[in-house]
Amino acid sequence: MSAARSKTLSLWFSERTLFRVPRGVIRYVVALGWMAIAFAIRYALTPLVGGYMPFVLFLPAAMLATWQGRWRPGLIALVGGLLLGDFFFLSPAGGALSFHHTELIMLLLYFAAGLTGIMVVEALHRRSERLGVSEASQQGLKEKMTERKQAEAALQESETRLRQLAENIHEVFWLVTPNWEEILYISPAYEEIWGRPCVSLYHSPQSWLEAVVEEDRPAVRATVERGMADASMLPPMEYRITRPDGTLRWIRDRAWPVRDARGNVVRIAGIAEDITERKEATERVARQVQRMELLSEVAAELLCVEDPAQAIEKLFQKLASHGQLDVYFNYLVTGKEDTLELRSYAGISREVAQTMHKTRFGQPVCGLVARERKPVVAAPVQECSGSTGAMMRRLGLRAFACHPLLANGRLLGTLCFGSRTRQAFSEEELEFFRSFCNYVAMGSDRLRLLKETRQRAAELQGAQAQLRAHAKELERRVAERTERLRGSLKSLEGVLYHVAHDLRAPLRAMHSFTELLLQNYAPQLDAVGEDYARRIAQASDKMDTLIRDLLDYGRLAHQNIECTAVDLTALLDQLLAELNPEARNKHAQILLDRPLPVVWGDEKILEQVLANLLVNALKFVAPGNVPHIHLWAETNGQTVRLNVQDEGIGIAPEHQERIFGIFERLHDNEIYPGTGIGLAIAKKGMERLGGRIGVDSQPGRGSCFWLELKPSFIS
Amino acid sequence: MNGNLPTILHIEDDSNDRLLLQLAAQQAGVRVHIEAVKDGEGALAYLKAEGPYADRARHPFPNLILLDLKLPRKSGFEVLSWLRAQPETNAVPVVVLSASEQPSDIQKVLQTGGDVYFVKPLAVNSLVEIVKEIQRKWL
Fold it and tell me: Smallest Cα–Cα separation from A191: which of A175, A206, A177, A172?
């Protein structure tokens, strides 16, 4: 304490620059100076005081000299003052060392007082030095002091801030002794959260624990006790407290040990916060998640089950196990539009269920829900009047919710949930019921659709089976008819065969005997008779050609095709050789561009086609003209085009299609005899080969018949 | 009648054709003995020397058979198969003279054992040529 006080005093001095201590010899000069000043003042006062108090003023001079220059200058100033006082102010003036006994006493007193003062001041100096308040460190000390002051100010500021923070924040800051017996600080939020004054806690430090609800208290106490034993073992605690008004709050309390420089726990600090809302939100979310899970389960269930009642039952059991529900009943619309039938239920006796087996639209409560298509929620039952209340009382329900089951605007029924213990259903629960009912409704609707689809599928299957049977029957009939047709065709072929044989036999006879008549009996016939006989021969000849052409045509239509590689050059050479007599007859000029390509086709058919074209080319020339025939081929990728160009009479464009029809003739039979079947045979032949035939022609400028054939890749 | 002449058995139901063959043979100057039967049964009877053909002196075994395909009751093919199945007739040349130009018929004849196939011609001269060829090749 005293050290501190002396320190303050030396500070007081050191701060005053006037008393700054001079150094070395100067301090003696200063001492003499003080002595001179004291002398001057005393001398100036001599007229007033005379010889009284000659030394008084030298005392402070000696003191000041000592203060500034330590005891030596002080002693000099004291002795100097003694000499000056004695010499100038003691009577007789100017007489030195001639003392009166009173004067001597005065002199001794002065000396003693001066010496005492010097000693005191010197002692003060020594003390200061011992404390390190040396002349050199005084400046540093001053700076330190300033810093400290600033730090103190900052500390104070920060403390203010902390206090403001502590006192305005919603969390409770608290500070206790390590043994938890004394509350050192508790922030005012305590009053808000605990609903008790802070003072009460200061008075009875355990009162906060009394507020903790019964069930949580042992755990909290255990944690605190562990904390007392080892302050580093202070896990965060979560507990509930009951406020004086009866409401519950959730608290999260965290604590830390506060240690001194040596690591000893000196205090326990902590923050307690009200996490009721957070807790509730978490619980709400958890409940929500649980419900969502439940809903998704329901959805999955509804997708699997054949009967939605099973899903409802299952869900109800889950809800009941969570202690949320006691009763449910599910009505469904029956065939009759305005009647509901109890489909499934739980939590009510069979007898009660039988009494409510059926309900009509508009009848409370489910009938009402069904008619209005709006949910009815009732809770608590005491407040419910009328029929709903009556029903609920009958079933012993306190909270009740009934929802319509609506799917795509169709009412399927109602679903009600009730609790005998709960005061009311929360908004979230009601939302959950609504969602659940939607799910059930949609699931039921899906099942209905599924059933319908299945039924339709079954019907469809039946129809398909019928169709299949029908198709089989048809197939059978087609096969039968085909067989019959084949038979007809066979008989037709037979007819053709007979035509070939039987029709031509009499012809042959006619022709042959007419010939024989002409050959052997010409002398007996006159010119007319001979002409008649010739006409018979010609007519029978022509008829034979006609029959043969027709047979060719008929055969082409259903003859088997045997494709091979056909060398057009060889084929045409052979054909031209066969036609050579006729060609020579007509002096025909035939030009063949060799070599012609090898094509893929039936040789017999190709021969028929080409023979007909060549015969035509030789035949259809203007009377008196010589046939010019040019044969050449062009290969163009996938087709070979064989051209038979003549310089004959040509064909008018309007007839170019017609000439390929059977029995189509453009010319007088007298000039161009023929059956009108040749080109029809050519066309049919090309059709059978999968090729094409055509003609480019202009009347009077010749014709170019062309065939499109497939090239052969085998030569 | 004349045992020195080669005998042709002509199996033909058409009387015109039978007459025409006779005339063609005359016109060709081919000296043959032509025995004609109207159908397959007749041919069989002739070849087996049964019934009216029992006398081989009058109806000698043929050197060649001329066969029509279209015959009443038994077809030419059946007759041909029978001929080829019998050891006695197995080696007798069979010339088919038919009105049919169907390649299938021609093929079938050659497969069944016919030696040559001629289509009955319209002109007498052609028939004469055929007879000449038959004589040249087969008699």
Answer: A172
